[in-house]
Specification:
Helix content is 77%, strand content 0%. By secondary structure, it is mainly alpha-helical. It has a domain at 4-103: 434 Repressor (Amino-terminal Domain), CATH 1.10.260.40. The protein starts with a helix and ends with a helix. The model has no long low-confidence stretch (mean pLDDT 85). Residues 109-143 form a coiled coil. Residues 12-71 form the HTH cro/C1-type domain. One of its GO terms (molecular function) is DNA binding.
Length: 144
């Protein structure tokens, strides 16, 4: 039987994979949210080899855009005989995974938007350079 650390680790791994993140990327995201983590910390957590504090659980939830209680709830699936509970668990799990994916998609869109703005500025600068060169070329042909 799995202990709570192993169950929590499996949930974190699932959320990380749903978000399309590596362990290193998750460590960086957690560090950005205030929990200084490294890749080996994530590996230990996912393998149930490291206990997680409540504060860390909240930071993990923030990174994946889910509620801490949802992460905890995903560690304890209902008995197979409880069809209603199993259905709710599956929905909660699906919702958590979709939220994690949505956060990743939003981050990717923001990065692409920033890149587009950079490229627009670069194109405008090139257009100015071309106009300047064309003007210089025009001045030189009038002199000839």
């Amino acid at each position: 039987m799995e202990n709570i650390e192993e169950k929590l680790g499996a949930v974190v791994r699932s959320l990380r994979q749903a978000a399309g993140m590596t362990q290193e990327q998750l460590a960086q995201a957690l560090t950005g949210e205030g929990w200084a983590a490294r890749q080996n910390t994530i590996a230990k957590l996912e393998n149930g080899l490291r206990p997680t504090t409540v504060a860390e659980l909240y930071v993990i939830a923030r990174v994946f855009n889910v509620e801490a209680r949802d992460i905890y709830a995903l560690t304890d699936p209902p008995e197979v005989e409880d069809e209603d509970g199993a259905a709710k668990f599956a929905l909660r799990q699906g919702l958590a995974m979709k939220r994690a994916q949505l956060k990743t998609d939003r981050s990717q869109i923001a990065a692409l938007d920033a890149e587009m703005n950079y490229l627009r500025a670069a194109v405008m600068e090139l257009e100015r350079d071309i106009r300047d060169l064309e003007e210089q070329l025009g001045e030189h042909s009038e002199e000839a």
